[in-house]
From TrEMBL:
Gene3D superfamilies: Fumarylacetoacetase-like, C-terminal domain (3.90.850.10). This is Fumarylacetoacetate hydrolase family protein. One of its GO terms (molecular function) is hydrolase activity. Transmembrane segments: none annotated. The lineage of its organism: Bacteria, Bacillati, Actinomycetota, Thermoleophilia, Solirubrobacterales. It comes from Conexibacter stalactiti.
Length: 271
């Protein structure tokens, strides 16, 4: 059973508008949990949904996928939370391998390495399995997610990041390929930010034991918070296999996936 709402619709709409304005102006706001100490997870997803409706009302905007966050122990520890969350992806949030991303488009970006899924069949309900997810998957790809926070200094609790579209920023996708016989849980991944950046590594098993497991969790969570499903054709990113790394102007982030290839993005001002 989902947690009950504590905020009324007016407060939900106001918080959604504040977050989108922070994204537009690149001026971070104070945590929602500071203004509304009683805010619940259900409130946070209601704020996220209200923000999604505002975003999709823009000309040309389209929902193209979902993200699951905080699925690895290292990211939960980093963010000080104890459960996954989910958000949405729009067409404007997706770029191809080798993209140049303008640092001015973000407030406090960090990069993550993830294995992206593209579905050929819809997924919904609370009874799915990893096998169901793999059967519904058309292809997988190496991915970089740029996470970002409209909350000042990343001072977030779980409700703050959920309301802020699970701290989504942008996704850079590498080449798609069939799942085939590749053991996604065993895929070794390295993430590097250069020059003068950090590096780390992980495996597909870091996200709830298997990269498809967060999608099982997502389908159940969508069922609980609004009764939605994941549509055929949608892209799903299931969470970081290692700790998110900060990235600054002039740096390049590269993630390499054994058996899947690599994906990179450069952060510099766009002329």
């Amino acid at each position: 059973m989902t947690e009950a709402r504590a905020l009324d619709d007016q407060a939900v709409a106001a918080e959604a508008a504040l977050l989108l304005e922070a994204e537009r102006t690149r001026v971070a706001i104070e945590p929602i949990t500071g203004r509304h100490p009683a805010v619940t997870i259900a409130d946070a997803y209601a704020i996220q949904l209200a923000g999604r409706e505002l975003r999709l009302a823009r000309p040309g905007a389209a929902l193209v996928g979902r993200k699951v966050g905080l699925t690895s122990a290292v990211m939960q520890q980093m963010m000080g939370v104890d459960q996954p969350d989910f958000g949405y992806l729009t067409a404007a949030m997706i770029s191809a391998d080798g993209a140049t991303l303008d640092p001015a488009a973000f407030l406090a970006p960090r990069v993550e390495a993830e294995i992206a899924f593209r579905l050929k069949a819809p997924l919904a309900g609370a009874e799915l399995t990893i096998a169901d997810v793999l059967a519904a998957t058309e292809a997988v790809a190496p991915a970089l997610e740029v996470i970002d926070s409209r909350v000042a200094d990343w001072r977030i609790k779980i409700a703050d990041t959920i309301a802020d579209n699970a701290s989504s920023g942008h996704v850079v996708l590498g080449a798609w390929q069939p799942v085939g016989v590749l053991d996604l849980a065993a895929v070794e991944v390295s993430l590097e930010v250069a020059p003068e950046g950090e590096a780390n590594s992980g495996t597909g098993a870091a996200v709830l034991g298997h990269p498809a497991a967060p999608i099982v969790w997502l389908a159940r969570a969508l069922h609980d918070y609004g009764g939605e499903g994941i549509a055929a054709g949608e892209i799903v990113i299931p969470g970081a296999v290692s700790r998110a790394l900060p990235v600054a102007p002039g740096q390049r982030a590269t993630a390499r996936f054994a058996g899947l290839g690599e994906v990179s993005a450069t952060f510099e001002a766009v002329a």
